[in-house]
Amino acid sequence: MAGKALVVIDVQNDFCPGGALAVDGGDEVVPVINRMMAEFDHVILTQDWHPADHSSFASQHEGKAPFTDIEMDYGPQRLWPDHCVQGSPGAEFHPELYVTSAELIIRKGFRRGIDSYSAFFENDHTTPTGLTGYLRERGIADLTLVGLATDFCVAFSAIDAVKQGFSASVALEACRGIDMDGSVDAMIARMKAAGVSVR
């Protein structure tokens, strides 16, 4: 298993029931992921980590409601409720997640002017998080991705993993989606088309 890693995407309080951007059943993935961690020599966590005035927050755009789409200089951007603000309880990992199993935590979305769904790149698709270099230097080529949410950060991370030359699979039993207008099925189709193994 030396060349394989479990990449756990954004299992944070704000994405779990009661959180600012709660995913239905988001907390249900925690025991599944904890069991999976024991099967991997390498575990990597990502953590949404926004400044309070992040440009993806609807509160920063007068007259705009959450879940509407706007155009940013890097392309389309969905506006969200304020969530995962740096240092807030909502940004913390779910309290039952085995955080100590992780050898690396990648924080993303900390640049005010750009959002970051993928564990590999900001939403301009060019600004790297550093994860690609870490994996290559460690000789890790085979990734299993789990977490929240299936149709956003998990899917974009998996697609970018393949683009970066890694083997990527998504374990749906350990994911939950936001599912806006059929977005889970649409993103599963996009992942499969990109070469991601979805199981």
From TrEMBL:
Species of provenance: Pelagibacterium luteolum
Transmembrane segments annotated in the record for this chain: none
Molecular functions per Gene Ontology: metal ion binding; nicotinamidase activity
Leader sequence residues: none
Pathway as given in its UniProt record: Cofactor biosynthesis; nicotinate biosynthesis; nicotinate from nicotinamide: step 1/1
InterPro entries tied to this protein: Isochorismatase-like_dom, Isochorismatase-like_sf, Isochorismatase_Nicotinamidase
Keyword terms: Hydrolase, Metal-binding, Pyridine nucleotide biosynthesis
Residues in Isochorismatase-like domain copies: 5-198
Enzyme class: hydrolase
Identification of the protein by name: Nicotinamidase
Similarity comment text for this entry: Belongs to the isochorismatase family.
EC identifiers of the protein: 3.5.1.19
Gene3D superfamilies per record: Isochorismatase-like (3.40.50.850)
GO biological process: pyridine nucleotide biosynthetic process
Keyword Chloroplast carried by entry: no
Lineage: superkingdom: Bacteria
